[in-house]
């Protein structure tokens, strides 16, 4: 009889555990927890070694903004560029957006920011309204340069004035850290 009670308690605790996992992975509650964990674990991005820096050729890449206007890549010549590939459904992407927003608010007139997504304009608009975001969002009309390819998001790149990738980050980061701001200020000199 005692063994039967123990086995039924084990079965009940397993079912409860599976339900908790389901809530975590398949509901908005789980998304909030994942976003919070990503923010907690986000680190400041590091600069690439000079020998690892690759040049970006924007020649065949076409982007359009939220109003359907084609982005003119002549605007990036001689400027520092931050490119972030993201999605509205991606917890690490959501986690880093507040730090990007703060950075954008302070550097939007000094740095070219390109937040690239494949989400629908309606989803992006709803996301931006919900999060009070003013980040400039772009949609690809053609494939990004091969040096910007990543199989995961978020994928972020900082390109210096010479067109070289000096930072590449493939998970959530704290883009508003004092360490990153010092690095960005050095790139702007």
UniProtKB/TrEMBL annotation:
Keywords: Isomerase, Membrane, Transmembrane, Transmembrane helix. The keyword Transmembrane helix applies. GO terms for molecular function: antioxidant activity; isomerase activity; oxidoreductase activity. The keyword Transmembrane helix applies. Residues 52-189 form the Thioredoxin domain. Pfam families: AhpC-TSA (PF00578). The chain crosses the membrane at residues 12-37. PANTHER family: THIOL:DISULFIDE INTERCHANGE PROTEIN DSBE, THIOREDOXIN-LIKE PROTEIN HI_1115. This is Thiol-disulfide isomerase or thioredoxin. It comes from Myroides marinus. The lineage of its organism: Bacteria, Pseudomonadati, Bacteroidota, Flavobacteriia, Flavobacteriales.
């Amino acid at each position: 009889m005692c063994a039967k009670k123990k086995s039924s308690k084990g079965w009940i605790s397993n079912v409860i555990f599976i339900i908790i996992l389901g809530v975590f992975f398949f509901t908005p509650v789980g998304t909030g927890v994942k976003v919070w964990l990503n923010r907690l674990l986000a680190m400041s991005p590091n600069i690439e070694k000079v020998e690892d820096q690759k040049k970006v050729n924007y020649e065949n890449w076409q982007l359009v903004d939220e109003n359907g206007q084609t982005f003119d890549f002549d605007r990036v010549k001689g400027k520092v560029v931050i490119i972030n590939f993201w999605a509205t459904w991606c917890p690490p992407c959501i986690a880093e957006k507040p730090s990007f927003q703060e950075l954008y608010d302070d550097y939007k007139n000094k740095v070219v920011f390109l937040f690239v997504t494949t989400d629908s304009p309606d989803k992006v608009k709803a996301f931006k309204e919900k999060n009070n975001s003013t980040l400039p969002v772009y949609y690809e009309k053609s494939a990004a340069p091969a040096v910007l390819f990543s199989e995961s998001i978020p994928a972020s790149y900082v390109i210096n004035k010479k067109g070289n990738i000096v930072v590449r980050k493939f998970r959530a980061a704290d883009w508003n850290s004092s360490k990153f701001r010092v690095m960005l200020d050095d790139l702007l000199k």
